[in-house]
Amino acid sequence: MRDPIPLSEDRIRRYSRNILLREVGGRGQEKLLAARVLLVGAGGLGSPAGLYLAAAGVGTIGVADGDEVELSNLQRQIAHGVPDLGRDKAASLAEALHRLDPEISVPTHPRVEEGRVPFDDYDLILDCSDNFETRYLVNDEAVRRGLPLVSAAVVRFEGQLTTVLPGEGSPCYRCLYPTPPDPECATSCAREGVLGSAAGTMGTLQATEALKVILGVGRPLAGRLLLYDALEPSVRIVGFRRDPFCRTCGEGKAGRGFKEAGGGAEV
Ligand SMILES: [Zn+2]
């Protein structure tokens, strides 16, 4: 993370509800302004995550997405509207974030698979993608660079969320799921459907995790997987350990296993 950036009078007024929080304060708000977050995906997760990060005062929010806005996106990708149909999705989200705050920086990038996203320009990555290829690629890039990663996924009425802190030795996404599923078997929103508000819940949780990591407050979901079921509704948190044989972060040492955090209690 970069050094905090001093706040203008206008920004102190804008963020007064943040600054009133003892855990944030003026110093925390300055940290948010200096923070550079990369959103991978400008859809159902990236829309709420990006909007909340921009509203919270994160100073740089990069957006990587290669798609165009389609009519079937509007059911859950709430940063986009009818006038955006057919537009570049990253540019559309960038414009929505600038409507909230014209002073923040919102660079746009192509999809990460093209290899042209400057990960090193960022302090933290949010994986808001909708496919396993991107998910593993982003995990590997984050771990290689020691960048914190907040990874979320949603399908049907269910969501998952975990935070990877490579600098602190936490397990990574590949420790959790060592092998990508067969593309033929992998579920996707197009085949399975997804409740838009469930995507909103997960994207919002993702933004909260990112803000906690930037501010250094609370307990990030490192080594823990949050499982949300909108139908019950229920939220469970399951602990998992680093895989010593992980292709991305493994060291070839120690044991491996899963454990329930807090006895697997409902929270
Ligand atoms: Zn790993």
The percent range for helix content is 25-40%
How much strand content do the residues show? Answer: 15-25%
Order of the strands making up the biggest sheet? 3-2-1-4-5-6-7-8-9
CATH superfamily: NAD(P)-binding Rossmann-like Domain
What CATH calls the topology is Rossmann fold
Measure the end-to-end span.
Answer: 31 Å
Describe the model.
The protein has 267 residues and is an alpha/beta fold. The protein has a single domain, classed as NAD(P)-binding Rossmann-like Domain (Rossmann fold). The chain has 9 helices and 9 strands. It has helices at residues 9-14, 16-19, 25-34, 46-56, 89-100, 132-145, 173-176, 189-192, 196-215; strands at residues 36-40, 60-64, 108-109, 124-127, 149-155, 158-164, 224-229, 234-240, 258-260. β5 (149-155) and β6 form a beta hairpin. The chain is globular, with a radius of gyration of 18 Å. Zinc ion binds next to α7.
What labels describe this entry?
about 270 residues; alpha/beta; Rossmann fold; 9 helices; globular; disordered C terminus; binds zinc ion
Quick rundown:
The chain is of the alpha/beta class and 267 residues long. It has helices at residues 9-14, 16-19, 25-34, 46-56, 89-100, 132-145, 173-176, 189-192, 196-215; strands at 36-40, 60-64, 108-109, 124-127, 149-155, 158-164, 224-229, 234-240, 258-260.
